[in-house]
Design goal:
Number of helices: 8
Structural class: alpha/beta
Strand order of the largest sheet: 2-3-1-4-5
Strand content: 5-15%
Shape: globular
Order of helices and strands: EHEHHEHHEHHEH
Number of domains: 1
Number of strands: 5
Radius of gyration: 16 Å
CATH topology: Rossmann fold
Largest sheet: 5 strands, parallel
Length: 208
Amino acid sequence: MEKGRFISFEGGEGGGKTTQLSRLAGLLKSKDIDLLETREPGGTPQGELLRDLLVRGEIDRWQPMSELLMMNAARVEHVHQVIAPALAAGKWVLCDRFVDSSYAYQGIAGGLGLKVVQDLHTLTLDGILPDLTVLLDLPTEAGLERAAKRGGDARFEKKGTEFHQKLRDGFLKLAADSPERYVKVDASQSFDVVWKSIEAEVVSRFSL
C-alpha cells in the first residue's frame, strides 16, 4: 500500500488556515482520496486537554519551555495515535499546525532557539515532517485585526504586536530555510485567490 501524504498549514493569527484546509479537503475528497483532517495542539483526547491548558488563561500563564513541553507531549500522542497510523494506511493527513508552530512560537518568538525545539522533536518523534507545509503569510497587524473580528481571545492572540511580528519573521525564516517543503502564500488576498494558489501548488506537486 502506498504511504499517504502529510500536509500542514502554518502561519500567524488570522491567516485563514482552517478555511483553506477545509477547501483542500474538499478537493481531495472530490478525487476520491481518503483523508484525515486534524489540528494541533489537539487531535487526540489527551491533546485536546493540553490545548485547553495552552490556549486559555493569562498571557504569562506558562513559560515558553513549559509551552514547548506540553505542545510536544500533545504531538507525541497525536503522531502515534492518529497521524502515523493514517499515513501507514495510505490516507492523506491535513493538519492545522505541526512542529513548525513550535519552532516559530516557542523557538523564535518565545526565545528558546531553534535547536531546543529540533532536539526535542528528534528525540521524541524521530523528526517527522510534513511532505508539504503551506505558510499563509500576511502583515502582522492585519492578521491580528482579522483574529479580533472573529472574536479570538486565546492567550497567544493577546501577546501583542511585537511578539506576533517575531512570529511572522520566524515563519518566513523557516520557509526560506526549507523551500523544498514550504510554499508561501500571500494570505492578505481574498480567500478565493489564496485558495487558487494552494490548489495549483498541491495539484502540481502531487500530480493530481
